[in-house]
Structure formats: structure tokens, C-alpha cells
Design brief:
Elements: E1 14-16, H1 23-40, E2 43-49, H2 57-68, E3 78-84, E4 89-95, H3 104-120, H4 124-140, H5 152-174, H6 181-202, H7 205-234, H8 251-255, E5 274-282
Parallel strand pairs: 1-2, 2-3
Antiparallel strand pairs: 3-4, 4-5
Helix pairs in contact: 1-4, 3-4, 5-6, 5-7, 6-7
Length: about 280
């Protein structure tokens, strides 16, 4: 007996090795399923391959679902839609945690009402798109545990940015008090404005605080040094006419972080399990 086909290296929610989907449709469905995972925690994956080899699509489906560990561990809220184009077979594999929302009868109805008629007409993108939209609605209607933040490295980086930004903001605002309150107050408003702008552009409060800290620190330190040097040089004790200190622009600080965290483009299973629930069909 021939060896089973290897499990595809799935790097996104849509895996299409035969280019069955149009590029725009593939990108749109990827975004739909990424948003579903972000909002609900559940994972829905579409795998399009030429054939399942000597395995039945049911055997292949459970093996792939278990190997990819689609869905969250302990919640088992994963769904795998498999299309074997050359075999003219389709399968919806449903995790334990979604068998209430997508029982076998409902999975079969999706295949027979949404996928098969479109495929027989040659409208592959339409069939898969309709199936994904239906699955998305069914999963969203199910009561599931709230999603847990998956990217711990991003959280750690956010914490570092926030800590640095907070310290630099504090130092940058307090140091100018050496030469007078007006510089500290001016620095505060400028750095706060830059921080708010970066937060608005990136939708990341850590980036905003970091940019605020960078601007506050540079204006505070260099402004204080310049102001103190000016006072010492002129021998005057007044606050002086400080102008060049505020010329430090926030562009270098904010532009470096304007992109924010990009959502991870790589798919990775959450440790979920499937028990063979779902349905199969052919066209």
C-alpha cells in the first residue's frame, strides 16, 4: 500500500495548491477567517488539493485536522473544509466543540446546497466563498470561550515599549524643571501631541507612549542643556528666549513605528481535536 500523502504545510487560513480560487477571493476569504479567529478564537481552514491519494477524503480529513491541530486546545473549535479537485470530492471536518453549531446534517446541507451546485457550474470561487460565509455565521452564533491573546511575544514587546516610553517621558518632562517650568510644560504638550498622533496612526497605545517618551526625552535633555548653556553664556538669570529646543521633530520617532504590529500572516493550529464529525460530498 502506498504511503499516505504528506499533510500540506499550511501557512494561512486558505491553502490552495491548484489555484482553484481567484486571487482576490483568496485574499478576501483569508481576511474573513483571520477576523473570525481574532473575534471568536475558533479556526476555520480551507485546504484545496488535487487528490487525497489512496485515502478516502474522510480518512484524509481527520488526519489533516489532527495533524494541523485546528482549533483551540480543550475547546476544539476548529473546522477544515477540504476540496480534492481531481477526485471531485469535498469534506467539512468539524471539531468536537463546534458539533453543536455545525452538526453533520448542517455540514451536509452546506455541501449540497452551497458547494456542489456552484462546482458543477464551474464556479469554484463562488462555492467556496458561500461555504466560508455560512461557516463564519454559524461559528459566530455559537457561545465559545473568549479568545486568549495568542502572540505572547507581541505582548512582551508592547510591555517593553510602554516601560521605555513611560520612563523617557518622565525623565524628559522632569529634567527641564532645572531651568524653568515653561520648558517642562512646553515639552509635555509637544510630546503628548506626538504620542497621540502615533497612537491614532498605529492604533497601538504602546507605540504612542514610546514616541511620546522619545520626543520628551530629546527635547527635555537637549533643551535643558542648550538653555543652561545660553544662560551661562549670557550671564542672565532669566528664562531666556528658548527657540531651537522645540525644533526637534517627532517625525523620526513616530515614523519608525507607524506600521504597528502587523497581524501574523502564518497560520498555526491551536491544539484542537476533531472526532470525525462533519460531512462529505462529490460533484
Amino acid at each position: 500500500m502506498a504511503e499516505p500523502l504528506p499533510v500540506p504545510e499550511v501557512t494561512d487560513h486558505i491553502y490552495d495548491s491548484v489555484n482553484m480560487l481567484e486571487a482576490d477571493t483568496r485574499a478576501e476569504l483569508n481576511q474573513t477567517l483571520k477576523k473570525l479567529e481574532k473575534d471568536k478564537g475558533a479556526q476555520v481552514v480551507v485546504i484545496i488539493i488535487p487528490t487525497t491519494g489512496e485515502e478516502s477524503i474522510e480518512e484524509y480529513g481527520i488526519r489533516v485536522a489532527e495533524s494541523l491541530a485546528v482549533g483551540r486546545k480543550g475547546v476544539d473549535d476548529g473546522v477544515v473544509l477540504i476540496v480534492a479537485k481531481d477526485d471531485r470530492k469535498v469534506r467539512i471536518e468539524v471539531g468536537y466543540g463546534l458539533e453543536g453549531a455545525i452538526p453533520d446534517a448542517v455540514a451536509n446541507r452546506i455541501i449540497q446546497d452551497r458547494i456542489v451546485p456552484a462546482f458543477r457550474a464551474g464556479n469554484f470561487s463562488t462555492g467556496i466563498q458561500d461555504a466560508v460565509i455560512t461557516l463564519d455565521k454559524l461559528v459566530r452564533g455559537e457561545a465559545l470561550p473568549d479568545p486568549v491573546q495568542k502572540f505572547e511575544d507581541e505582548l512582551a514587546l508592547y510591555s517593553v515599549f510602554s516601560l521605555i516610553g513611560g520612563i523617557f517621558t518622565l525623565v524628559g518632562v522632569l529634567v527641564p524643571l532645572i531651568v524653568g517650568r515653561w520648558l517642562a510644560i512646553t515639552n509635555f504638550f509637544i510630546s503628548a501631541g506626538v504620542g497621540f498622533l502615533v497612537y491614532y496612526l498605529t492604533d497601538g497605545w504602546a507605540f504612542g507612549l514610546f514616541a511620546c517618551g522619545m520626543v520628551a526625552f530629546f527635547i527635555g535633555i537637549f533643551g535643558t542643556v542648550f538653555s543652561a548653556a545660553s544662560v551661562a553664556g549670557s550671564g542672565s538669570s532669566g528664562s531666556g528666549s528658548y527657540s531651537s529646543g522645540t525644533s526637534y521633530s517627532s517625525s523620526s520617532s513616530s515614523s519608525s513605528f507607524s506600521s504597528g504590529f502587523s497581524s501574523s500572516s502564518s497560520f498555526s493550529g491551536g491544539g484542537g481535536s476533531c472526532g470525525g464529525g462533519g460531512a462529505s460530498g462529490s460533484w
